[in-house]
Amino acid sequence: MSGQRLKSQFQRLYSHFAGQDSDTNLQDIAEVLFCTRRNVRMVINKMVENGWIDWEPAVGRGKQSRLTFHSTDSELQLIHARKLVAEGKLEPALEALGNNADKLAQIIQEQLGHTTAHGKQIVRLPYYRAFSNLNPLQPLRRSEQHLVRQIFNGLTRINEEKEEVEGDLAHHWEAISPRHWRFYIRPSVRFHDGRLLDSADIIATFNQVRQHRLFSHIKKVEAPFANTIDIFLYTDDHRLPDLLTNLLAVIQPADAEMLNQNVLFPIGTGPYKVIQNDNKRFKLEAFEQYFGFRALIDIVDIWMLSEVASCYLQPASDATQLAGVSVSARLKLDEGCNFLLFNRISGLPADPSWLAYFHARLTSLNILQRLNKEQIGDFRLTNAYGILPGWAHVPLQSSAELAPPAKRTMTIAFACQHPVYPHVANAIRDILHDDGVKVKMLELTTTEVALGKYANKIDIWLGGMSLMNYRDDALLNWFFNFDHIARAMPVDEFDALEQEVAQWRGNKDQNSPCQQLGAKLVEFGQVLPLFHNWLGVDDTGVVQGMQSNSMGWFDFKSVWMKPEHDM
After folding, report:
1. Gap between the Cα atoms of 522 and 514, Å rounded
2. Each residue of 141-176: pLDDT tens digit?
3. What's the gap between Cα 225 and its chain centre?
4. Which of the residues 11, 85, 295, 505 could staple to 557 if both were Cys, CB 3.0 to 4.6 A apart?
């Protein structure tokens, strides 16, 4: 007999006797359960084994047996629902609870947070959407960028505490000349599928990577000796090890199909490997053969729950903890901003009068006044006066030109499945509607936005950027990212900024041009910063070492759980 059928039989029995301990007999119970006396004995024995009831058989003819209930119908319902939730089956769990959403929320909150199962330490986190693309060679959103860092390694990486470049797959490197760098690779590094990392994997990765503008000065990559990689450049670059910390440059297996198509279950060399990725759960497991320090948490289990606010993450074990997060010293301003990118090539902003109008009307203050505080309150938006917090490049007084040049329809595009963008787009629509300008909204995937789908039909892109670290040069990853800005910017302006970056790379004594680059993007009217977000984690509780990084997450491999004990 299946477990679900046995539960149904118990519910029928419990309902018939109204949950009251009773004197009865096998024949009466057989009639209640619609089964034979022989089968009813088996059903009763199963219920006794499960601890749901006690059964004291009658002694002597004509005597009644004693039925005692140890569980209630609702208790069994909750037990079943908890099992379904643990398996990620939220819709069946809701149905098992009689479509009681409050009970389902309570069970979910019980199971989030830290736990131990079968000797493994597990951290469960809530999130609001699935992770449909984890290929580092494709455009990625902020959370996917963080996850990719847990799965892959590059030749170099940024130490998040010191903000300095350090070895990753490469343990040492040297500049033989400004156009020839040599990297020495750690031996016996394994991918998650057990295969040893080979120089062919590194060469294949860079053959893909150098197709991107940021790496286009790479001429060729060779392996002159075992565990040695030579990178030859077209132009001088004194900062190549810094550049190779970029997410695009993490090393993947040489298999061409995996480099281009393995977006859900990528194979890396990092501290965690993907063991589940679907619309309900994303699960990482510590990689036992990782070449570095083994992760302290065995499993990171992320649940897709649409009602969870995405501006912070908080492992919690009860509803009070989940509801008690507030902006504090543990939360940081996002190292980036939400912004408007104007199509100055083929959109309305190519006309200076339209560009001036949009800048005058679509200020962060104007938009913020139109936002529904109940819908976006959890995100704690704050006005941005520059691309990064602390930068002040947006003029304090906007242009007095408020009337649109004509009554037209403009198109604004933004990434789909985002908790804030639709509300901001609606506010923009309302502002422009007051001036007689109609607004068409276009929701696209992150890949479609970054690769310029429908670019010639879009006037403004609403987007966001978050840098991987707090270094100045981190801005370059966004500026050159898949030519999204280059596609919307006059060629002479973009080329001039690109040349400044190239000169800085070729001169090891020159200061970073990145803040000037950010200022010019605002000065040209190419980008209008809107808001910074509060992001981070709440580090109260037994999970130790939870420090928010620039992406609003925490390094999974570095957190651990302090054993609970009585004081």
Report:
1. 13
2. 888 999 999 999 999 999 988 899 999 999 999 999
3. 39
4. 295
